[in-house]
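Shipment paperwork, digital attachment
Item: protein structure file
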Amino acid sequence: MDPVPVILEVYAYLHVRGGAAAIDFYSRVFGAQELVRLAEPDGRIAHAELKLGPVTLMLADEFPHLGIQSPLAFGGTGTTIHLHVDNVDTLARRAVQAGATLLMEPTDQGHGERQCRLRDPFGHQWLLGHQIERVAPEEAQRRFEAQR
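Attachment content:
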């Protein structure tokens, strides 16, 4: 049997309805820097790359004939993107002001993060968090069980 290939990088690749607006939103709210934009003649984004902190986020507009649909096409998403930031409360306010929907208010969590959850205008769910304390895995488990 051949050895398992080494994974060199992993990219989140978002499918959106309104690619240009999504690039603008992610740039204004999260400070993403646009690296690449390949656009169709009709203006739809065929492929874009955004620098988001230390990672590259890729995105494309919907192309239903190719099976590429945004969460808005089916009313939900099966993925949450978790961003570690320096101030959850400030970023949550900024996102909501730019059109995101707050799904969970910023709240201190037993595992040591302050977190909130939001849905961007393109249907993608984001979990924003910043560390408020260091919690050992055993203590996080104990706290988790105590909440149930």
